[in-house]
Design brief:
Elements: H1 8-20, H2 23-29, H3 34-48, E1 53-55, E2 60-62, H4 64-86, E3 96-102, H5 104-109, H6 111-121, E4 125-131, E5 145-149, E6 158-171, H7 173-179, E7 196-197, E8 207-211, E9 214-218, E10 226-227, H8 231-238, E11 244-247, H9 248-257, E12 262-264, E13 272-279, H10 287-302
Parallel strand pairs: 3-4, 3-5, 7-10
Antiparallel strand pairs: 1-2, 5-13, 6-11, 6-12, 6-13, 8-9
Helix pairs in contact: 1-2, 1-3, 2-3, 6-10
Length: about 300
């Protein structure tokens, strides 16, 4: 009986060309040469009896047959990857790799504390952390888990709540000494507020308050607006540029010292935004991924 899948290396070459955008880049990624990649794709096209790539002098694109084939090939490779990771750790010692995507706020100020104990208990697990303010495609980009802010859309993903992160308005002592401390929400109109532009919509994120048992959304306006990295508003506030609203877990240490940031309008506090851990329901998670999910959920419940 002959081998049924002795052409998988050729399939991997095709997927690499699509992912990397050229024969040369694919060759670098696979540690080979462009001519080897070209011959692999030619063999695959001959085997299938169909053209997969459309080549021009400037770019390489997929034919419709190629698009369908690459989609199915990626799914097959993901299943093989899942199968390998599913058995990792079954012998007792947890091993393997977990890829997780997190936003900058959580990646810099929460995740390090949550990961510490997990990595000590499982020294043979490798965790790859992608810190970025965008919603990755878990399946297409090969992530096992992601942490996301806000109410989860009905995307078919499995979500587990990590925490409802409370918010505060803060400013530097230098700014307050120069401009005064706001006492009411109406007072904010006379101050330099530091809004953040949401990358998903291009709109300014409202500041959230609570007054007399009711929830209030207030739209900050300023000559300054920060986009892409929400931590930018905190840096500007620390420099005395204006006021910002951010998560308590980011500014707790600064406000305890008192020299960098001071909370204002505490009587209007109490609002929060949720952070959730998500993963694709149809992928069989590895033992390492399942253990990390449990560690993050349990750790977030104990977080200060």
């Amino acid at each position: 009986m002959g081998r049924r899948f002795d052409h998988l290396a050729d399939v991997e070459a095709l997927v690499a060309v699509v992912d990397q955008g050229s024969l040369t880049a694919a060759a670098v990624a696979l540690s080979t040469t462009p001519s080897v990649i070209s011959r692999a794709i030619a063999r695959l096209e001959t085997r299938l009896g169909s053209q997969l790539l459309r080549r021009t002098t400037r770019r390489i694109g997929l034919t419709e047959a190629g698009r369908l084939y690459v989609e199915q090939a990626r799914t097959a490779f993901h299943l093989i990857d899942d199968a390998e990771r599913a058995v990792q750790g079954e012998a007792g010692t947890l091993t393997g790799q977990v890829r997780i995507s997190v936003p900058t706020t959580y990646g810099h100020y929460r995740l390090p504390w949550l990961l510490g104990d997990f990595l000590q208990r499982h020294p043979q697990v490798r965790v790859e952390v992608n810190i970025a303010n965008r919603n990755v495609d878990l399946v297409a980009e090969g992530f096992d888990l992601a942490i996301r802010l806000g109410a989860l859309p009905d995307s078919g993903l499995v979500g587990r709540t990590l925490e409802d992160a409370t918010l505060s308005v803060v400013a530097s002592p230098a700014y307050l000494a120069l401009h005064g401390t706001p006492q009411t929400l109406d007072d904010l109109a006379a101050h330099t507020c530091l809004p953040f532009v949401l990358p998903s919509s291009g709109r300014v994120a409202p500041w959230l308050f609570r007054a007399e048992g009711g929830d209030i959304e207030w739209m900050p306006a300023s000559r300054i607006a920060v986009s892409d990295d929400v931590l930018g508003v905190v840096s500007l506030a620390q420099a005395g540029v204006g006021l910002c609203q951010t998560y308590d877990f980011i500014i707790d240490a600064c406000t305890r010292r008192g020299a960098e940031l001071v909370r204002v309008l505490p009587q209007f506090g109490g609002r929060a935004r949720p952070f959730s851990l998500i993963y694709a329901p149809h992928r069989r998670l590895s033992a390492a991924s399942r253990a990390l999910i449990d560690a993050l959920v349990e750790g977030a419940a104990r977080a200060p």
